[in-house]
Write a structure and sequence with these properties.
This protein is mainly alpha-helical. Helices cover 93% and strands 0% of the residues. It is built from three helices and no strands. The longest helix has 55 residues. It is rod-shaped, with a radius of gyration of 31 Å. 0% of the residues are buried. The model has no long low-confidence stretch (mean pLDDT 82).
């Protein structure tokens, strides 16, 4: 039983020791660069999707605002005489 416990503790220490024994530039430069290279396509796809969605939302808001402006402008000028009747 103690041997199994020592084996588990040894593997945990070995996992921490792999990163702890490396120079700082491996931990802070090489590992993030490798992750960006491996997952870069997925990250770029997600960022592109979010930017595209934001652009579509802005275009939709601008179109809706334009329609509201046009409807109020043209319906407001024809109904201005009826407002004076009240």
């Amino acid at each position: 039983m103690t041997r199994d416990r020592q084996r588990r503790q040894g593997s945990a220490v070995a996992g921490k020791g792999i990163i702890a024994g490396l120079p700082w530039w491996v931990t802070w430069v090489v590992v993030p660069v490798v992750l960006i290279v491996v997952f870069g396509g997925m990250i770029a796809t997600a960022v592109g999707f979010l930017i595209g969605l934001l652009f579509k939302i802005l275009v939709a808001a601008a179109l809706i605002a334009g329609v509201i402006y046009l409807v109020r402008r043209f319906s407001g000028s024809s109904s201005s005489s009826s407002k004076g009747d009240w």
